[in-house]
Every structure is written in structure tokens, then in C-alpha cells.
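Give me the fold.
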Amino acid sequence: MKNTLWIAFAVVVVAAAGFFLWPKHIRNGIAADYKNGTYSINGRMVTLVNGHAETDTGPNSVSKEVTQYFGDMAEGDLNGDGQPDVAFLLTQSGAGSGTFYYVVAAIKTTGGYQGTNAIFIGDRIAPQTTEIQNGEVIVNYADRAANEPMTAAPSVAHSRYFVLSGPMLKESPRIAGAGAHCGGNMMNAPICAEGYHCAPAQGSHLPFGDVGGTCVVN
């Protein structure tokens, strides 16, 4: 009887210690450290441990999908609560030759960090800087031109912009003013500010739907 009580007591002690001595893991979706947070990548939840995670690529597969903290961390308030949130890049690689870059954010709460969804940036790009300005995440990087092979060195500069919408990170369109370029089929095409609309540029013979136009007053 005494042995049974001691065993039960030991189990309770070990369980309690495991709960309180697990500072860098997830409790109720909140991580003490953003490098140990959980992030949604392509609809699948990935939990980092010291900036690293490995998962099987499929049933009976010997290869692993590796998710890692890349860096380019920026700090700033993304949701207007006065707390210093962070944004940074993750990479994922597996059995193939690709190295896929994603931007994520970790929202600061009273208990730690809440991870967001990840947004794909590119394959084997050359990251430059990540910034947070006025509640917006800006990712600057170099990529290849559309007609270049993956063996070419990234040399074309890009900047993409992201904001927090509720708990989700989403791409932010560029806001254009009077006379500025708008619309077109480019990624993240600029849209006109309130009170203006996008109209074909005067004298242009290019297709408006493809190349866009300029912002004019309503």
C-alpha cells in the first residue's frame, strides 16, 4: 500500500515538474520565446524548438522536412497594443533542392508570443532586410527574373508588405495617390487612396487590365 502511494506521489511530482520546467514550449498557444513558437505553414502547424523543427515528408519516408529560423528579425508594434511584436523569416527544405522562404510574425502578449500564419516569399531567394514601419512588415529581397533558371543568382530587387488582420498576417496592397500608378496584373498591385479610382493612363495604348493606369479623383 505504501509503495503504491509513493508511486502515485512520484507521478504527480514528475508531471508538475514537467509543466513548470517547460518554459520554452507552448502553453495554450503562447510561447515564452518566438523561436519556440507555433506557426501555420501551408495549413499545417509547426512548432519550433530553439528555432528548429523536423517532420516526416510522408508515410514510411526516410526524408525529413526541416523548418528553421532564418533571421532578418524586426521588432515593432503590429496590432496597436503598444507591445513589441516581431517579424522574421523561416526556411523550409526537404527531399528536393528547394529552400522555401516564409515571413511570419510573433505577437507579444502578457504571457509570451502568439505565432501567426506564414506567407511564402520565394524559393532560393537572397533575403536582404526585414523591417517594421508604422505597423507594416516590409520584406526586402532579391529574386530571379521571370525568364531566368533557378541556377541564376538572384539579382532583381523586390519589396513586399504585410499587415496583421486580426490574428492573421496578410499581404498589404500599396496605396497610390493622385497621378500615381495603380492596378495591373503585377503581384501586390497598387490601389488608389480613398476618393480616387484607377483609370487608363492618358495617351497610353497598352492594355489597362495588364499594366494598370493612374489614380484620378472620383
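Residues 2-172 form one domain.
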